[in-house]
């Protein structure tokens, strides 16, 4: 059976605080001790898994979705590492300040933690495929924005980026300026938004439909190809975990598939 291990009080040296990690291993991890596995890192870890100790009733259900996709033969097994967010999520997942709500930007500290502390720990503790082609990062809202930041600033670490309902309008749309050219490395980038994701948050108008569509056009304009990008507009979806749970069974097979140049045999 697949398992979820919760690690509490995992220390983040860049942020000078402790974190909670939730690590899913698929059934194949226990069944095949000579096999190595790719890893998906997901933000807002307390909302990622269908588990009694998750924070919300409606979560992403990433564990049960992964189990089902593997059973149906639609996906090879991946390890999933859920990283709980800290109390000040607005600062944690953005490297730039947002004056409209008085949030500072400490996202680079989170990136330092993930790239230089957490990933080495996971690679040393678990049987992983540690190359960028087999390392993915995913989040929603500000977590989606941070996934795009990590994919651009650390393309030598993350080859697959899942930006679900990403807040690309945050901090004056700085993410457009960060993505000023392709990384020059192999990558896959998934983007989406729900058609009902349009509302005011304090003094910021959050129009995910137009903003994410615009960012998709921007990535194409700077040279990314259709084989690297996917943009989905989900009819009738709001900005919440229930919507992201509904989309996940279609996201994972595209984002995490082996692809024409990466064969399933690489997993063994």
Beta-strand proportion? 15-25%
In CATH's first tier, which class applies? Alpha Beta
CATH superfamily: Alpha/Beta hydrolase fold, catalytic domain
Inertia-based shape: globular
Report helical residue fraction. 25-40%
What ranges have pLDDT less than 50 throughout 5 or more consecutive residues? 263-268
Report Rg.
17 Å
Beta strands, count:
10
Distance between the termini: 19 Å
- CATH architecture descriptor: 3-Layer(aba) Sandwich
Major pleated sheet:
8 strands, mixed
- Summarize model confidence as the mean pLDDT: 93
- By CATH, the topology is Rossmann fold
For the largest sheet, list the strands in their spatial order: 1-2-4-3-5-6-7-10
What structural category characterises the helix and strand content? alpha/beta
- The overall number of domains is 1
In N-to-C order, the SSE pattern is EEHEHEHHEHEHEEEHEH
Total helix count?
8
Organism: Syntrophobacter fumaroxidans (strain DSM 10017 / MPOB)
Protein name: Putative esterase
Pfam family, one: Esterase
Secondary structure elements and pairings:
Blueprint: E1 3-12, E2 17-25, H1 27-31, E3 39-43, H2 62-71, E4 79-83, H3 89-92, H4 107-125, E5 135-140, H5 142-153, E6 160-164, H6 170-178, E7 188-194, E8 198-201, E9 204-207, H7 208-221, E10 229-234, H8 241-256
Parallel strand pairs: 3-4, 3-5, 5-6, 6-7, 7-10
Antiparallel strand pairs: 1-2, 2-4, 8-9
InterPro entries: AB_hydrolase_fold (IPR029058), Esterase-like (IPR000801), Mycobacterial_A85_antigen (IPR050583)
Protein name: Putative esterase
Pfam family, one: Esterase
């Amino acid at each position: 059976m697949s398992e979820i291990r919760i690690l509490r009080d995992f220390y983040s040296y860049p942020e000078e605080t402790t974190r909670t990690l939730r690590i899913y291993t698929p059934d194949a991890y226990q069944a095949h001790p000579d096999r190595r596995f790719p890893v998906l890192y997901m933000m807002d870890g307390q909302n990622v898994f269908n588990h009694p100790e998750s924070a919300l009733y409606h979560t992403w259900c990433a564990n049960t979705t992964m189990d089902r996709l593997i059973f149906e033969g639609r996906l090879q097994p991946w390890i999933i590492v859920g990283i709980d967010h800290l109390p000040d999520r607005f600062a944690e997942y953005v490297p730039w300040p947002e004056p409209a709500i008085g949030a500072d930007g400490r996202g680079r500290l989170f990136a330092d933690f993930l790239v230089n502390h957490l990933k080495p720990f996971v690679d040393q503790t678990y049987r992983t495929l540690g190359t960028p082609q087999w390392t993915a990062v995913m989040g929603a809202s500000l977590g989606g924005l941070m996934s795009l930041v990590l994919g651009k600033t650390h393309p030598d670490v993350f080859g697959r980026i899942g930006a679900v309902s990403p807040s690309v309008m945050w901090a004056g749309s700085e993410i457009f300026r960060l993505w000023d050219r392709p990384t020059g490395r192999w990558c896959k980038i998934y983007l989406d938004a729900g058609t009902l994701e349009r509302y005011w948050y304090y003094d910021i108008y959050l129009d995910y439909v137009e903003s994410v569509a615009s960012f998709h056009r921007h990535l194409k304009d700077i040279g990314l190809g259709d084989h690297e990008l996917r943009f989905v507009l989900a009819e009738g979806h709001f900005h919440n975990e229930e919507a992201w749970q509904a989309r996940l069974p279609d996201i994972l097979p595209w984002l995490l598939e082996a692809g024409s140049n990466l064969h399933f045999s690489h997993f063994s």
